[in-house]
């Protein structure tokens, strides 16, 4: 964790503020990669992840966009407190950057599909792709210009002319089926925004023949999910041969912690990815992946233990641990 004073450049749009964090001694901050985020300690009980929206090549400061989510919209108080309490010069603690939404830098073409505040990781991705000289399309959908953030950052970016805006109140709602082309090998699409928007991007891409490994999304909050039924199952720790029983009302992370096996847990919602461990798919029974962070490809060898479980009662999950 690092202590940083920050500068508030001001409200970007209705309920959306832009923050800049700098190291107290003015040194470069730890490096980050496009799509990465930091955790901000807003108060002891509020630690929230925010995507980094700056240029990964510029380590003089981190840029964040924070949307105030009132309780009636499902907010849990962190963003509202940040808007209220964070003022210029305040020293705050943030984590080192982590990335669960990494860019495929070898892509032949990248499609950046942003919805609302989901524009933040896309800005870092566009900076990186531009630096690499890689082609990309950038579509930014928002309800209106007054609610869309980072318009100034986008206009000033050297690649800003590539951004195509879709403002609903101006009758420019994005026609995702029309915007996305048929899949060609080497292409990747990234989306971040409201779950319904990201579902629309995935559905359009899938209809155009895009395979799941070329589709990437990042959730800010837990979307409405299927009503899962928990089954009791067994964890096999391959390296020690220990077997741990996970009852229906427990999570694998609870059981591991009780057994003295340290697995980091942060969100407990399948969003942050810190509790991921490698598992042996060949030696395991079917896994019910309930997370919102791993790609289809990653799920072949990793499991998010705070929420995922064996599909069938009595199933065994063999952890490479
Ligand atoms: S603790 Fe965040 S995904 Fe498991």
From TrEMBL:
Residues 1-104 form the FAD-binding FR-type domain. Its cofactor is FMN. The keyword Ubl conjugation does not apply. Keywords: 2Fe-2S, Flavoprotein, FMN, Iron, Iron-sulfur, Metal-binding, Oxidoreductase. One of its GO terms (molecular function) is oxidoreductase activity. This is Oxidoreductase. It comes from Limnohabitans planktonicus II-D5.
């Amino acid at each position: 964790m690092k202590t940083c004073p920050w500068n508030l450049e001001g409200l970007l749009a209705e309920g959306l503020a832009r923050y800049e964090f700098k190291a107290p001694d003015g040194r470069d901050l730890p490096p980050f990669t496009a799509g990465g985020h930091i955790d901000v300690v807003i108060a002891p009980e509020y630690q929230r992840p925010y995507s980094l929206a700056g240029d990964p090549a510029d380590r003089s400061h981190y840029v964040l966009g924070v949307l105030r989510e009132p309780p009636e919209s499902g907010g849990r108080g962190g963003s509202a407190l940040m808007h209220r309490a964070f003022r210029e010069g305040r020293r705050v603690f943030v984590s080192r950057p982590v990335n669960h939404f990494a860019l495929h830098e070898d892509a032949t073409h990248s499609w950046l599909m942003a919805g609302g505040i989901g524009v933040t990781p896309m800005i870092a991705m566009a900076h990186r792709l531009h630096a690499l000289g890689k082609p990309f399309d950038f579509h930014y959908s928002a309800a209106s210009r007054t609610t869309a953030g980072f318009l100034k950052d986008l206009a000033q970016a050297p690649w800003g002319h590539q951004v195509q805006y879709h403002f609903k109140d101006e009758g420019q709602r994005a026609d995702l089926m029309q915007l996305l082309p048929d899949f060609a090998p080497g292409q990747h699409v990234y989306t971040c925004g409201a779950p319904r928007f990201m579902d629309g991007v995935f559905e359009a891409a899938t209809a155009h023949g895009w395979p799941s490994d070329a589709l990437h999304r990042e959730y800010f909050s837990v979307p409405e999910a299927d009503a899962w039924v928990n089954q009791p199952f067994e964890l096999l720790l391959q390296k020690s041969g220990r077997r741990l029983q996970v009852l229906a009302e427990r999570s694998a992370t609870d059981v591991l912690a009780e057994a003295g096996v340290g697995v980091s847990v942060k969100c407990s919602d399948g969003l942050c990815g810190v509790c991921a461990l490698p598992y042996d798919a060949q030696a395991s029974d079917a896994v019910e992946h309930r997370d919102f962070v791993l790609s289809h490809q990653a799920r072949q060898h990793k499991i998010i233990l705070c929420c995922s479980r064996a599909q069938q009662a009595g199933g065994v999950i063999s952890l490479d641990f």
